[in-house]
TrEMBL record:
Reactions this protein catalyses: 5-amino-1-(5-phospho-beta-D-ribosyl)imidazole + hydrogencarbonate + ATP = 5-carboxyamino-1-(5-phospho-D-ribosyl)imidazole + ADP + phosphate + 2 H(+)
Name of the featured protein: N5-carboxyaminoimidazole ribonucleotide synthase
UniProt pathway: Purine metabolism; IMP biosynthesis via de novo pathway; 5-amino-1-(5-phospho-D-ribosyl)imidazole-4-carboxylate from 5-amino-1-(5-phospho-D-ribosyl)imidazole (N5-CAIR route): step 1/2
GO MF annotation list: 5-(carboxyamino)imidazole ribonucleotide synthase activity
Gene name as annotated: purK
Upper taxonomic lineage: Bacteria, Bacillati, Bacillota, Bacilli, Bacillales
Sequence similarity: Belongs to the PurK/PurT family.
Broadest EC class assigned to this enzyme: ligase
Enzyme Commission identifier(s): 6.3.4.18
């Protein structure tokens, strides 16, 4: 079979490789950590830094197709890979999504709404923009942020100087966003193949704790026409940005039913893990189908589901709970599917796995979560 080369060896790569191997593909991953989550299930791991040109060449030599599982791939390495192998996702989507300003402009050009924003080049510009948007407003570094890092929520004009000084230390451009008083956060994963086929998965309703995804609830508890609109927006972005493979679209939904796109991720997304057992096709299989130019699979939801992330502090309570008879008696027809990523150090706050709780209703799945007490410590 063909070999798929992967930049990055984390859990997203691991789940991609597990799905792709079932389809007959071989996998090689490039990651700096020996025995990475993906390396454990791949045919081969090249252990080196992501920007190591020699290692990238080695990957290109054995891979028929190359993909990535994180978006901060070195642009130089990507162009080299494009010359020496086949990178169906290309590099321009990476270039766009690595930078919040470029990303927002691209989303707007696709005819989709984002929260009002301004490029910030000085404390003076920040003062002026914060006055225009009002407080609270959110200052973000244009590149490199994740899990809420590289952000400052300005609660008063008095914080302008300190916020500017702190975030500008990162040396990247800054962007100020109006604060959206959202009712819910939702996300839609879209997929597009080289032959131009586009599909979306059902929207997930996402709850965060300490800026880290805690739950994805599907179906999302929002009016049908709002969810349809969210899917149309994601489809439009996939088409207008010439996406190949997956693109995750994070959105804010207001009480009035208005949708704003927050940010994009051109790869499998944590909020799409529910698809593994709850949809006709998982996001991982779908990505493999897309980059290999196979027909896309159906995205229909087969059952209500709640995905709960398992962080370092949740591993032991989870393993203790699932073997208890009570865990099966909480609600009839509930099945908890446990996924662990093969990481050895269960550090606090580190993503170690997730559980997909399949149930007759999302309420029943939430009852299982509450009864388990696994996530008590974090709330
Ligand atoms: P991720 O881990 O999802 O990549 P990130 O560090 O890139 O996170 P964002 O997704 O931009 O950061 O923001 C993190 C969270 O902060 C959002 O999920 C949302 O809850 C809140 N947030 C960000 N921007 C805004 C905004 N303009 N208005 C209201 N809340 C916001
Ligand atoms: Mg982000
Ligand atoms: Mg985000």
């Amino acid at each position: 079979g063909a070999t798929i080369g992967m930049l990055g060896g984390g859990q997203l790569g691991r789940m991609l490789a597990l799905a792709g191997r079932a389809m007959g593909y071989r996998f090689a991953t490039l990651d700096p950590t020996p025995d990475s989550p993906c390396g454990q299930v791949a045919d081969k791991q090249i252990t080196a830094a992501y920007h190591d040109v020699g290692a990238a060449r080695e990957l290109a030599a054995i891979a028929d197709v190359i993909t990535y599982e994180f978006e901060n791939v070195d642009v130089e390495v990507t162009s080299l890979l494009m010359k020496e192998s086949y990178v169906p996702q290309g590099s321009s989507l990476l270039y766009t999504t690595q930078h919040r300003l470029r990303e927002k402009r691209a989303i707007e050009a696709a005819g989709v709404k984002v929260a009002p924003y301004a490029e910030i080049k000085s404390a003076e510009e920040l003062r002026e923009a914060a006055e225009r948007f009002g407080v609270p407003c959110v200052l973000k570094t244009a590149t490199g942020g994740y899990d809420g890092k590289g952000q400052w929520v300005l609660r008063s004009q008095g914080e302008v100087q300190e916020a500017y000084d702190t975030l500008s230390k990162a040396g990247t451009e800054l962007v100020l966003e109006q604060f959206i008083h959202f009712d819910k956060e939702i996300s839609v994963i879209a997929v597009r193949s080289p032959r131009g086929e586009v599909k979306t998965f059902p929207p997930a309703e996402n709850e965060h704790v300490n800026n880290i995804l805690h739950l994805s609830i599907v179906p999302a508890r929002a009016p049908e026409q709002v969810l349809k609109e969210a899917q149309r927006m994601a489809e439009r972005i996939a088409e207008e940005l010439d996406v190949i493979g997956l693109i995750a679209v994070e959105m804010f939904l207001t009480k009035e039913g208005e949708l704003f796109v927050n940010e994009l991720a051109p790869r499998p997304h944590n909020s799409g893990h529910y698809t593994m057992e709850a949809c006709q096709t998982s996001q991982f299989e779908q990505h493999v189908r897309a980059i290999c130019n196979l027909p896309l699979g159906g995205t229909e939801l087969l059952t209500p589901v709640v995905m709960a992330n398992v962080l370092g502090e949740h591993v032991k309570p989870l393993l203790d709970w699932i073997v208890k008879p009570e865990s099966e008696q909480v609600a009839a027809g509930v099945t908890a599917k446990v996924h662990l990523y093969g990481k050895s150090e269960a550090k606090r706050g580190r993503k170690m796995g997730h559980v997909n709780i399949l149930a007759p209703t999302t309420e029943a799945a939430c009852r299982w979560i509450d009864a388990s007490n696994i996530w008590e410590s974090k709330k």
